[in-house]
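Deliverable D4.2, example record:
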Amino acid sequence: MEESALEGAAERRELLVEALRVYGGRYAELSRSFAAHLGLYATDATALLEIIAAEERGAPISPARLGKRILLSSGATTSLLNRLERAGHIVRSREHSDRRVVTLRSSPHIQERADEFFRPLAAPMDAIVGRYPPEVLDRFRALLAEMGTAMDSHLARVNQDG
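Output generated by the structure prediction step:
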């Protein structure tokens, strides 16, 4: 690739990364508002959202995977899950053929509360997404996946060195 094309790519990358950073900040604020709506700590609400999202993908999450996703130690994840379980927000089950594997599930009442909070956002988001052809959205999703892979590779290198 010639230098001017690389310069253009760097500029477009910076603009895209800035837009993603702004979107990430808004998503974090939405998560904090969801936590306040439920009367939970922000980290507890983030964990709930991860558990619900994993269920929606058809791949329920384990405590170890949840801890990695929300950047908590094993002990901190256990404390968080104990709080959520005592409050009736989640259930731990042993559904896997390996009975040592614990699966996290959200309770029906917390799914209702999440729907109540997020449902008003669905229509405007659907309207926005509906303005773009599926091919454009597929390309954007692929772009985000590739950028995520590049970030994962970078993180693996810097975490290995540090």
